[in-house]
C-alpha cells in the first residue's frame, strides 16, 4: 500500500500515553484540509472518519483515485461548505492511510503487525488534538463525524470541553453494544482465519490475507444497509444469467455485489488496521469512563450539540443516539436532535439524503451566523 | 404572528429559559429568541416541523411530549409553553403534571369547547363543531379530550395548581378570566390562556 505521495503528515513529538499503558512519541498523523482558515481562525471544522474512512473527505482521493468518503456532505456550497469553513480531517492512529499504525515500523525497523499497541477512541482523539496546535486554532467552530467518527466527536468534547463551539455526532453510540461487538468479532475472525494472515506478519512473508479481509468487509457491509434497501435494490435478481446454475458461483446480484465490495476493499485497506480499529470501537464505552453516568462526560462543556440519527439504521439505532440526547438534557445542555427518514440504513450519513444534508447545513450555517 | 403568541410572549419576562412543547415551525420560539433574549428550546413530534425549526436556527428536539418530557430535570425551565395541544394527548393530566415538574411555571392554551359558536353549531346543526380553532372533522381531528375554559379552570383547581393568570382571547380581544366572570368568558372566548404553577 503506497501511502507516501500526496499525504500530508504531522509528526507529533510530544509523548502520548495510550490507554493500554504504552507511550508513543515522534509518530505521524496524516491529515488533509479543505477550504481556508480565516484570520480569526474561528471557521475550522474537525471531521472524524469512520472505521474504513481516511483523511480524504471529499474530492478525488489521491491514493485510491475514487471520490472522498463524504463527498455528498463536504465541498463548495455543500452542507459543510468549504467556501466558508476550513475542514480538517486526519487518519486515525491504527489506520493505514499514513497515520501511525500496524503497517509502520517499530524502532528496530521491524513492521509492527500485531506488536502495535492496542489503541482506543480516546487515544485517537488525543492524537488528533495535536492538529489544533499545529494550525494555531484555539477553538474549533465544529466537530462532526458519523459512526466511529461520532464516537470520536463525543470523546473529543468530553476530553476537551472548551475546544469546539458546536458538536455534531451522527448515527453513533456512546457505547458499543453486544451486537456491534459481535459483528466486529466476525470480521476479525475472518481475517485471522486466513492462512495468509501469518499472525499479522503477512508483509514480511510477502502474503496478504485478502480473502479474510474481503469476508470481513462483506459481513460489515450488510450491517450498513437496511433490509428494505437491499430488497429494493437487489431483491432476488440474478446476476447476468437467465436461471439458477445449481452451483456456488454468484447466482444472485446481491452475492456479486458483496463480492465486489469485498474485493475493492482489499485494494485499499490493511487487514491489521481493520483488527485494531474494530477493537478500538468495541472498547468504546464513554459512560464507563465516568462511573456509568454519561452526563458526566459532558458536564464541563457549554458547546451546542446537534445529534442526528436515521430511521433505518439498525447498527447504531435512533434509541442509542437518543440516549446521548437524554444524557445532555439531564444536565441542561444545549442539544437539538432529529431522526432522518431514510431506508438507506446506517450508510445514510454517507449518501445523498437531502433531509439530512439540509439539516446539517442549516445547523452549521445558522450557528455560524450567531458566532 | 398569531395574536395568541403575542399574548404568550407578553407573559414571559426577558432573559428567561423556556421550553416550547409542540413548538411546530418555531414561530413563537423565534419571536421569543429575537425579541426577549429567551434561551429557548423546542420539542416537536413532526419531522417536517423540526426541519423548519433547524432552518430558523432554533434548538429543537424531535420527540413526543407524552414520552420525552421525562428526560428534563425538575424545574429546569422558567417557563414551559403548551399551545393548543393539551386536548390532543392520550393522557392530558400526565402531561400537565410533567409540564409543571419541568417548568417553574407553565403557560397552557386551550381551544374553548364552550365558545358560543361551538355550542351553536352542535345545538342547531347537530354535527360536531368546526370553527377557526377547531378546523378538523370528527374523524380526522387530533383532538381526543376537548374541554371548555370552565372545565380546565376547575380541573387545575382540583389539582392544587395555582392559576397565576388566566386570559380569554376572542380574535383580538384579550380579557382576564376570574371566578365571577367565568360563565361569560366560557361563552364568548375562543381560546383560554393560563399561566399556572405548582
Describe the structure.
The complex is a heterodimer of chains A (371) and B (198). Chain A is built from ten helices and twelve strands. Chain A has 371 residues and is α/β, with parallel strands linked by helices. Chain A folds into two domains: 8-176 and 287-369, Alpha/Beta hydrolase fold, catalytic domain (Rossmann fold, 3-Layer(aba) Sandwich), CATH 3.40.50; 181-278, Rna Polymerase Sigma Factor, Chain: A (Orthogonal Bundle). Chain A has an eight-stranded mixed β-sheet with strand order 1-4-8-5-9-10-11-12, with helices on both faces. A two-stranded antiparallel ribbon of chain A has the order 2-3. In chain A, strands 6-7 form a two-stranded parallel ribbon. In chain A, helix 3 links the parallel strand 9 and strand 10 (164-170). In chain A, helix 1 packs across helix 3 and helix 5 crosses helix 7 (253-268). The mean pLDDT of chain A is 97. Chain B starts with a helix and ends with a strand. In chain B, 35% of the residues lie in helices and 26% in strands. In chain B, strand 1 (17-21), helix 2 (27-36) and strand 2 (39-44) form a beta-alpha-beta unit. Chain B has helices at 3-10, 27-36, 47-55, 65-68, 92-102, 116-125, 149-158, 182-188; strands at 17-21, 39-44, 59-62, 77-83, 103-111, 162-170, 173-176, 191-197. An eight-stranded mixed β-sheet of chain B has the order 3-2-1-4-5-8-6-7, sandwiched between helices. The model of chain B has no long low-confidence stretch (mean pLDDT 96). Chain B is α/β, with parallel strands linked by helices and 198 residues long. Chain B has a single domain (3-197), classed as Vaccinia Virus protein VP39 (Rossmann fold). Classes of the chains: A alpha/beta (371), B alpha/beta (198). Chain A binds chain B through residues 304, 306, 325-326, 329-332, 334-341, 355, 358-359, 362-363, 366-367, 369-370, and chain B through 41, 47, 50-51, 54-63, 71-73, 76.
